[in-house]
Design a protein that fits this description.
An 8-stranded mixed β-sheet has the order 2-3-4-1-5-8-7-6, covered by helices on one side. The chain is 19% helix and 44% strand. The protein is globular and about 45 Å long. It has a single domain, classed as Roll (2,3-Dihydroxybiphenyl 1,2-Dioxygenase, domain 1). Helix 3 packs antiparallel against helix 4. It is built from 5 helices and 16 strands. It is α+β, with helices and mostly antiparallel strands.
Length: 262
């Protein structure tokens, strides 16, 4: 699943970063993942930057709105789920206990978007494609490969994702890590869910980037200004991971998979 030109409804299709310092963020991700950025006009607002790996889109990046900066909201990565009918999806999410943060709106000719919070408070975006379908390459080093819902009550959030995304769940016992939930679209695992690693962390979605060598990538990220929250550690049967924040404060994971996803 390296190159992607379209996404079925219910499949995660895009991520973007709302950051306090777009220039610093672009420099960091260029150094760590090799991304190149292109500025896109937003019709009068700050530009929306598209990160590319080669000739394929990988992620978006934008200036954090001033009102969020004034409230001390940190830089944050957001993820989006593909939908064929965003109005119906949002209505179903509200019926299932979600909160509408941003109602469906047109984004010029690129598509329609909406933002919701699930019943536990984790924020998720939905995207109905126009000219922009989503990430053009995933699941290879330097690209988005996985996402995790960190929530103290993943089971309470699951009906919301079933209603909006068509996801079922499968639970796995991860020993000391506790229960890990895999959200599935049909037979495919599309993202995961687990309790936050520490008390006090609010419910949120965390993005995970694939790398060829976690230890080497952590050192590149550290030199580029990252704050390392969890030094490289092994996840039996999965791979070698690390958790960090970029120089603007946005948290993410990176992982070197034992078996690279298709």
């Amino acid at each position: 699943m390296a190159h992607m030109d379209r996404y079925e409804a219910g499949r995660p299709n895009w991520i973007d970063l709302s950051t306090t310092d777009p220039e610093a963020a672009q420099a960091f991700y260029a150094e760590v993942f090799g991304w190149e950025f292109e500025a896109n006009d937003t019709g009068g607002g700050p530009p929306y930057f598209i990160g590319h790996l080669g000739d394929r889109r990988v992620a978006g990046l934008m200036q954090q709105p001033p009102e969020m900066a004034e409230q001390g909201v940190p830089s944050v990565w957001s993820k989006y789920i593909s939908t064929d009918d965003i109005d119906t999806t949002v209505a179903a999410g509200a019926e299932a206990g979600g909160t509408i943060v941003m109602p469906p709106m047109d984004v010029m000719d690129t598509g329609r978007m909406a933002i919701m919070a699930d019943p536990t408070g984790a924020v998720i975006g939905f995207w109905q494609a126009g000219s922009h379908t989503g990430a053009g390459v995933v699941n290879v080093p330097g690209t988005w490969s996985w996402s995790e819902l960190h929530s103290p009550d993943v089971a309470a959030a699951a009906p919301f994702y079933a209603a909006t995304c068509g996801w079922s769940t499968e639970e796995m016992d991860m020993g000391p890590m506790g229960t890990y939930t895999v959200f599935q679209l049909g037979e495919d695992g599309v993202c995961g869910g687990m309790a936050p690693p520490m008390e006090g962390i609010p419910p949120h979605w965390e993005v995970v980037f694939a790398v060829a060598d976690t230890d080497a990538s952590v050192e590149v990220a550290r030199a580029a200004g990252a704050t390392i929250f969890a030094e490289p550690f092994d996840i039996p049967g999965v791979g070698r991971s690390a958790v960090m924040a970029d120089p603007t404060g946005a948290a993410f994971q990176m992982i070197q998979f034992e078996n690279q996803p298709d």
